[in-house]
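Bug #77: duplicate submission created two jobs. Keeping one. Sequence:
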Amino acid sequence: MAYATLHDRLRGPIAKAVGEKLGIKNIHALPRVEKVTVNVGINKSKMDSKEIHAYIDDCLQKITGQKPVFTRTNKAISNFKTRTGMIVGCRVTMRGEAMEQFLDRFISYAIPRIRDFRGLPTKLDGNGNYSIGIKDHSIFPEVPPPDAKQIFSMQVVITTTAKNDKEGMALFKEMGIPFKRDKKSAETVEKTS
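Kept job's structure:
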């Protein structure tokens, strides 16, 4: 059997299962993934060289398939040692087919490569959106193994059209995002086996 892409699964079995789980018959009212944003915070003390900025730009371009945008400060804040116009981050926003391809690779290949992985936390933001913090960018197979000084962390934010966390969680579980098991469900599995 051929592998079904996330694009096909979102419109077929995932939509059907989410509709049954939430009791929504209209397919246009179902929650769906709107956009995915990948953010990298740039630390002034460790990542202030142009070489590191170029490396982050190159890695994000390989991971997402899109050119990243560097974010700059609007005003100077002395406590954070920032000046106006200083680079403090890098981000990529994906929509449509590029977003679906990234999510497919992220769920299928990158997340299982996280060291000592026990499942992702189940906490959503209250509006059905989910943020995942990644400490090591080298979990993506597109990036060659980096030196220890080149490793940077990133945040992946999945934004949905869900109205609440229940709808968002139903969508994410059907997509196959590996969440931590609840202690109650883990105990019942142990008792039955």
